[in-house]
Amino acid sequence: MANKTEISADQAALFQFLLRMGDNTLVLGHRVSEWCGHAPVLEEDIALANTALDLIGQTQLWLGLAGEVEGQGRDADALAFLRDIWDFRNVLMLELPNGDFGQTIMRQFLYDAWSSVMLGRLIKSGDPRIAEIAEKVSKEVAYHVERSADTVVGLGDGTSESHARMQAALDYLYPYVGEMFLSDATDAAMVSAGLGPDPASLRDEYDLLVGKVLDKATLTLPDGSYTHKGGRTGAMHTEHLGHLLTSMQWLQRAYPNSQW
Amino acid sequence: MYAQMVKTASSGVKSREEMSEQERVFQDKIDADIKIEPRDWMPDDYRATLVRQIGQHAHSEVVGQLPEGNWITRAPTLERKAILLAKVQDEAGHGLYLYSAAETLGVSRDQLIEDLLAGRMKYSSIFNYPTLNWADMGAVGWLVDGAAIINQVALQRTSYGPYSRAMVRICKEESFHARQGYHIMMKMAAGSVAQKQMAQDALNRLWFPVLMMFGPSDKDSVHTAQSMAWKIKMDTNDELRQKFVDQTVQQIEYLGLELPEPGIKWNDETGEYDYSDPDWSEFFNVIKGNGPGNVDRMKARRAAWDDGEWVRDGLMAHARKKAAAKVAAE
Description:
The structure holds two protein chains of two kinds.
Chain A: H1 9-33, H2 42-70, H3 76-81, H4 92-95, H5 101-122, H6 128-156, H7 160-177, H8 185-192, H9 203-216, H10 239-248, H11 250-254
Helix pairs in contact in A: 1-2, 1-8, 2-6, 5-6, 5-7, 5-9, 6-9
Chain B: H1 21-31, H2 44-63, H3 65-72, H4 78-103, H5 109-117, H6 135-155, H7 161-189, H8 193-212, H9 224-229, H10 237-255, E1 265-267, E2 272-274, H11 280-290, H12 294-307, H13 309-329
């Protein structure tokens, strides 16, 4: 682009950080919305639609600010609908297919717990725009984590079948949890500018919260510390993300520059 | 209006002389517009008819999530996605109020769901039609919810208290749904050539199925008299359908779309629009299960129920454990 101006290194890091926040909520919101009309009970249809709605709302805030920081005239919709897979910065766990209801709700809890700890730190961000978003969405996230934790406990400590399914979900998802706590140069820039925390510093609080809930749910953390990664840096997503984007972006790609 | 072809459980409208004392007191209340409440005496047939009608209405809200859910993941902007999610969430909420209203008549939600899944109960024929392009999200809100509002506004005055109150709440949300649908249509009709084609396609394809939502023509509608005497049904099918056509034709013209069928013409004599009858053989086929989407819709609902059994059982088992622990601690 002829009029493209370079953004400073700090602004570039901030842009990447905001994409990470917004892509997490966008991709998870998409996955949760796939449940519409298919949930185990009507109350869950309502709750899942409501969770997806909140996540899409958060996406509008994070990607909206990302576009503003980037300064290239891209708004939240342009970022959501017109980037390709290599530009997405969500963690891998959130793009995995839903699996059964147990896997969906376990993923929701593992993410909600991270999100609640992260937002607690971002409320103190040196950038008032970030602090304001964090303040605003932390209320709904507090409700999400309470709800997903209760459901994990109910199903973990329910019947032998529900227990087995929840344990299988935890075993499958846990190797993806570590990615939320990996730090890189982008995070270092955020820390030094006083804008956001080092992800690694969230781990103790997260482990405490998750440990308590899993304990009540009579579930056991799997052995092994291997962590799948590549989503939040964009280095390597799973094959699933491309299919998700294919449906999500289809109208904008097929009928560009239209008003909807 | 998500209830149609509800079979009235009745052997015909009774004259006052034929009524028992209890029946006369009941009918007097209805005639005086006094609501019937769950603990009041009511004829068995009144109760049975209401269970059918409210149950069918509830099922329609639940099955109705599917044609719109079909586009949530493909909504073209974040705002449209959020609005659609909010709308579908409302529909599920309407299902919840309506099942609760039905429960006041002594039938459980699980029983009603089992009746639906076993094919003993129906949902509105409209949800057996597919949603094929994005303008369908506009047309469903504008036309399907628009048709529902016409019926449901009347049903706010229905004789059974819990149903009437559910309708008041539902109507408020439905009018938001219809407005957002029309807003999508305005964007599409004023958009690119392709968008305008989508809008016209959605209107043409959904027009007759929406007219069918009001149920068969009065001359073929055998259940009306008793339901109207009981104020379960407030207007006849044809009266409601005419009202819908009259309001919708003007909206089509405002959008600048072509009328969906050539029979729509202003009639100076009646002061209403004439329109062509839908193909009622198609309607009866959809009701019988031969619509374009019946099999898939029921398969999706059955899968949701069957796949969700372990979740419901697990949460119930946990609730029992918690309750037992609480008792033990006391």
